[in-house]
Amino acid sequence: MANIIDGKAISLQIKDEVKAKTARLKEAGIEICLAVIQVGTDPASSVYVGNKKKACEYCGIRSESYELPEETTEDELIGLIERLNSDTAVNGILVQLPLPSHINEDRVIMTIDPSKDVDGFSVNSVGALCIGRKGFRSCTPAGIIELLKRSNIEITGKECVVIGRSNIVGKPMALMMLQENATVTIAHSKTADLKSVAKRADILIVAVGKPKMITSEYVKDGAVVIDVGIHRNENNKLCGDVDYDDVFDKCSYITPVPGGVGPMTIAMLMYNCVVNM
Q1: Residue 4 within a domain
Q2: Is 96 in the active site?
Q3: 253 in a domain, yes or no?
Q4: How many structural domains are present in the chain?
Q5: Which is the catalytic residue, given 15, 52, 171, 250?
Q6: Residue 230's domain is classified under what CATH number?
């Protein structure tokens, strides 16, 4: 039977640490400010933005909200980001993704000042991660590292398989696990015999984007299973990329959905707002 990794509890630990730091900074006359930009009214994005605002309030971080209409042009969005780049009162800039199809996400991300890129998505941030220099780290994979460490799960020397190769999760996740001295394999939709590759993993991190795709056939006895996915099933209940019930008795540790990786992403965003202060 698996131990459940409680992302809610661990994320609260991190937010409390951030809250303490922001309080010390305020005593020194320094206020932390995060600017959050949302274009359009995508329901999921609105929920995420609302959760980020609540986290800011809890941590003592001032949030500035820019809720722009769907028809906002790319140049208008770029102009807003450039103004926020030059605003010394703003410490971090977050553009909620996805953006409407008429806006080039890469151009938008590249416009954000690297010193304010608290999402860790820019070329500067990713490049710093690649060569082991300090920089903002993508929040979801950084949160997974904290989940493992704070659950006293050994990473050094372990075989890790990351299923998924996105720029936001899969690739930075692999790099971070390498930095923690794991032996890392990145698997994906074109991987031959994915089940046997996944079954090698001491730590299996799944960010494949398909509900309940990973069953017990993919999991080695005693493996640690981290589920990044979040979906609605046929009963409108949240589920992950991992078939939780099928895998539960086979692994040593597992993250639930919800309540696992999700809360960590926002906690690490809060951490990124103060990490360089």
Answers
A1: no
A2: yes
A3: yes
A4: 2
A5: 52
A6: 3.40.50.720
Give the C-alpha separation, 271 to 204, whole Å.
25
Q: How confident is the model at residue 233 (pLDDT cuts 50, 70, 90)?
A: confident
Residue 119 known to be catalytic = yes
Is 243 considered catalytic here?
no
Name the pTM for this structure.
0.95
Three-state SS at 240 = coil
Domain of residue 48: give its range: 30-114
Catalytic residue among 117, 119, 241, 243: 119
Q: Which two tokens stand for residue 187?
A: 């698997």
Considering the domain architecture, whether residues 99 and 190 belong to the same structural domain is answered as no
Give the pair of three-digit tokens for residue 146: 């904290």
Q: Is residue 59 part of a domain?
A: yes
Residue 168 and residue 108 share a domain = no
Clarify whether residues 258 and 145 are in a common domain: yes
Strand order in the sheet with 253-254: 3-4, 253-254, 224-227, 203-206, 159-163, 183-187
The model's pLDDT over 12-24, given as tens digits with 9 standing for 90+, comes to 999 999 999 999 9
> Active-site residue among 15, 21, 38, 96?
96
- Residue 257: CB atoms within 10 Å: 23
